[in-house]
Amino acid sequence: MLAKAHGKISTVHGVVLRNLDDIKLIRELESDLDLDIWRAGLPGVKDAYIMVRPQFKEKFLERLDEAGIQHYVHNKDVVRALDDFEARFNQWKLRRNNDAIYNTYPRYGEIEAYLDRLGREYPNIVTVVNAGNSYEGRPMKYVKISTTNFEDSTKPIYFMDAAMHSREWVTPPVALYTIHRLVEDLRAEDRDLLENIDWVIMPVFNPDGWEFSHVENRMWRRSRSFNASISPICYGADLNRNFDIFFGTFSVSSNPCSDIYPGPFAFSEVESRNVRDMLYLHLDRIQIYMNMHSYGNFILYGFDNNTLPHNVAQLHYVAAAMGAHIDARKMADAPYYAVGNSNYVLYGASGTSQDYAQAIGVPFAITLELPEFDGYNFLVPPEYIEQINTETYAGIAETARLSYLFYRDRL
Length: 411
Ligand code: 0X9
Ligand code: ZN
What we know:
CATH superfamily of the largest domain: Zn peptidases
Number of helices: 13
Oligomer: single chain
Bound molecules: N~2~-sulfamoyl-L-arginine, zinc ion
């Protein structure tokens, strides 16, 4: 199943970052040597993890040595890590046959069926909407959850999406679990979340990539569009570089085969256009845009170009509260969340949906990078899904509560 990925994948190197210059060098090498940055790292706190294709390995290590940067082999056999993951996931599916959809890594058809079923079973609160079709023609489904049919303008909207990057498999379970808790398992202490807020939740932003990552290449990140005049061999663009904000200016590669290729022009990809249209559809009431990724334990906000939104004090307050609520429930040896401006805490990227949403007027646009355990990176063993779901839900609930408090200022 993963054969195509295997041909391309080689080793992952830990890089000991000392300062911003080291990060800058990595970003340069990223496009020159087509690196796949598995973890960006944080100087003095977290090493970067960089996957290097075999043909570039020598050059990569040479450049690090020249700059006096320490490095080590983090994963000497990515193929084996992929095989291990696949074996564990297969066992999990056998053992947990018929388990809840939010406790596994479901196929897109299963996710659609789940959303449709909720729409049928809870017609008073759940509406299933197709935001438009993906490049390959899959309906990009999302749910609207509301006790007042989205008609009460005194309520804020909480907008959440997941799996914009398809290999970040642990993100849809969190979106699905949030839906489940609001609709099928609403607890007394959470009634306010359903009654005071309207929710827009899209569990899979990139359904073509999601399916491709299940059947062809587990490490697939981008969309699946194809345009022979751009590249006769490489498909897709990075949807988180494709939004019309600082488009194509930093953290991008002009190589259409790169994982950070932003596309030929802003909104070249139908998936990012569809999400843009969803944002505009609800813009007057969206208080939070929560763009879920994996991995690294980060809660980030804009802007990416060395400037801060005018409401950064409130934005930071909300992001930090989220981190604190998740950390309070985290596994003992899991890392704490780092919270802050994306350019400062992680790296600036142009064309992100987070910055786009913030720039068009969403008060709190946040990128959530879900946890990493024991070096599993994108390959989070399914045994951990439940833990990540419940701890993250606590953070989501807290930001939701803050969203309706802050929304009152807008009325
Ligand atoms: O590079 C990205 O798009 C995100 N990281 S990931 O590993 N999930 O691909 C980070 C985006 C951070 N957000 C901004 N810089 N705005
Ligand atoms: Zn991502």
